[in-house]
Amino acid sequence: MTPSFSKLPEVYQNVIKFNSDRGWHPTSHDTASSVVIEAAELLELFQWQTGREKIDNKDPEVMHHLTQEIGDVMIYLFDLCELLNIDFVDAVDQKMRHNAEKYPVNKAKTDTHNEFYYSQKKKYREEKK
Ligand SMILES: [Mg+2]
Question: How many whole angstroms from 15 Cα to the centroid of ligand 1?
Answer without folding.
Answer: 15
